[in-house]
Amino acid sequence: MDKPSSLHLAIIPDGNRRWAKNRSLHPWKGHEQAIENFRSITEWCRNDPRVNILTVWCFSTENWKRDPKEIEMLMKMLEDYLRKEQEGFIEKKTKSLHSGRKDRIPSSLAQLIEEVEKKTADQSEFTLHLAVDYGGKDEIIRAINKISVTEDCDLPLRSENGIREHLDHPELSDIDLIIRTSGEQRTSNFFLWQTVHSEWVFNNKLFPDFEVSDLESAVDDFANRTRRFGS
User: Catalytic positions, please?
Assistant: First the structure.
């Protein structure tokens, strides 16, 4: 039985490089550990009836400023992850989606993302939404450019709903809860359109040390909050 429409949870997994630095390791070793941690977290979300969508910010539009070797290793890890997990997505009734640009990431990764999206398109029990080369401002600019190129410039298209329909995945519900690790307390250009009413949890742990028990506590805390949506 499919899960009912429920919680859209997002995670900004900060602190991977600091985790590696604290252990005198290369930065990408922190990303390696983060991916292993991410597997456990994804599995918990799949099995918790409250969580329907998990969005994870894997690589931002600003992250291109980092060391090229680190970027190369991270892109390879993302590709390896998708290759290993794609069959499991179908077995576990997981739809895989991507938000962000595909023209700057390695072509092999971009092609794989599209392949996995097509393979899992009919899955509906759980959605894993990966943001790769993603920035909130960039998404809104791309949406407006789509309108300018593909549509007549009628007033309704300039409305809130008109713009939303041209975002990367307008079919996804807005994000309910965002967890940011490593003690950082800023929004950082993360899904600006979809987070206008989001609740935030800031956790001091570096993401490789962030445990399922921390995630469960955050979701429990969210369940006890009263959301007013500006009213």
Answer: 14, 63
